[in-house]
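[Solved] Which block belongs to which protein?

Original post:
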Amino acid sequence: MQDEDRNYFRLTEAADIVARLIRDVEDFKLLAAVVIEVVASRKPMRASNRAQLAKGGKVPRFAREVYCDQDDDPPDFTVTVNLEEWANLSDSQKVALMDHALGHFGYESEDGSTWIKGHDIEEFLGTMQRRGLWSESVRQASEVLQPHLPGTAPEAAPPKAKHGGVKVGKQTPAEAASPKPTKMKAPTEKEAKAAFAAG
């Protein structure tokens, strides 16, 4: 059966991006020890009532054992890409999407265990618009995004300190103990797309 006749097939372009990211990005180098299968889906993919660009998952042990009967190594993780949405992404957006997918995959080299990691930040734009930088994760995201916002000079960004793989500004213990909400205007859809494309 040809790829054009299948609902799911290997997506070589995305797999090449994944291989490059694992090779070049320090945070992903441990993932070189696992097998990641990247497939395209012709079927529509939706989550939370909107188009889903991709989804990642850990392959269950039973599926890995079944897969072992084939010639290839069984995958530890899969990334399923919405083919229709993929076709509309720029090259930089494709790299960003695969970077995001890899960010979900955890691997421990000592015991070979694998797991799925959650997002560093889970927040609604409306909550941020109404409540500002109310949580530590929202403040960290704001500091990471600041140099990427239109009209923001990188040299104007605050000093950075390493924290859990994400660069964040330093805070005194008193500031951390009594955070004050900051008014923050949510970016327009056009600004968000421009910032995403620039990254």
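(Second protein starts here: sequence line, then its structure tokens.)
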Amino acid sequence: MREAFAQRNYTDLAEQLLLPAMAFFIATLQIAAIYIGALWFLVVVVRGIKRGFLRPPIWSLPFALLFLFYSVGLFFTENMAFGIGDLETRSTFLLFPLIAFCSPRKLAVPISAISWAFVAGLLVFEIYCYVEAYTCFETQRSRFCFENSAIAGGLHPTYLALYLILGIVLIATDTIAHKRPWWVYAIAFAISLNMLHFVYKLYSTGPWMSFAGMIIVLAATYFIIRRKLKMFLLVFVLLGTIGVLCIQYLPFLKSDYTSIKRELDTYLESPSEYVELHKKDSASAQSRLVGWSVAMDFVAKNPMGVGTGDVKDELLKEYERRGMESHLRLKLNPHNQYLQTSIAVGVVPGLFLLFVFGFYIWTGFKRRNYNLIALSSLFMIGCFFESLFERQWGVLFFMFFLVIFLLSSDNGKKPASAE
């Protein structure tokens, strides 16, 4: 940064300051992160005017193509107001790749500062969550003030859990990649345990499944790169054993596993009977299975989608037609991003989204970029259990870290934009 200041690379210096600030506020106050993102855009434009603009590489644009699918879907939308709002939510699919790659930078993206700024933001937000929980407890005197959505500080528990899991990954990759004093490792370990405990208190099953899948993908990547297949199999067995023990002895995981297994067995015996029997239920496992089944039937009848802005309206009509009172009352989405995208703009974009996650996992593998692999696998699996890209909580978070990881140096290599 001193070199940038001495050479009057003020745009690069501004970017070095803005990106960690944006990472901090993604976890604490997203409206502030959006304003900082607007400043980042201005900095990039000024730098482009001075140094010339670049064409973003093809591998940075798959989500821009997904944005194009949603834009085309707007032409087939009746509820235009909702469609425009939906498109606005996904605008970072297009904007972030353009901002990140459209002008040359002389300084590498400060991935370490960004990582710790994000973790610091999470810790601040945790404090806020506990203050809110204690306020709730003073009036209600209930232990439920310290569980699930009550302790999520206004965020959906699934999103907060995913934030925390990525925070753990960033702590791990940063401390492993750099030679730190022993006390830094101790602090990093303590913060990671704290975050993992907070994920547990959120009582959201989907992120745990995403976390387990992410660990498997990261372990596979690590040992395949080092050609240690036997070690991978050993670690796989070890992780499986830990998973079984967690399910057996952690009450929340045990009850969820038992419930999900029972409901799945019943559903697979006769899907149509199960949907008819539980169409009015609001219990999490039953509601999801019914919602997924109905959504798959709906996609089969509308393989080209119903339009970007009409998903909610058409689903509510379907719920009403089938007598799904709880889904209708709560206005539930399919809790599956692939189905949600397929209902909106067709089966092809829904499958394309799955392909894009796989593409970025492969890109991370080729670049030995474990952060990119972690983020992509986390969302790839998470999108099976939640419609993660229907709110800015998911879109802004994912796209920011996607472009940061694509830009960041990996194992001493320069970021692509600096080569």
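Accepted answer:
You had them paired correctly. Confirming on the second one: The chain has a mean pLDDT of 88.
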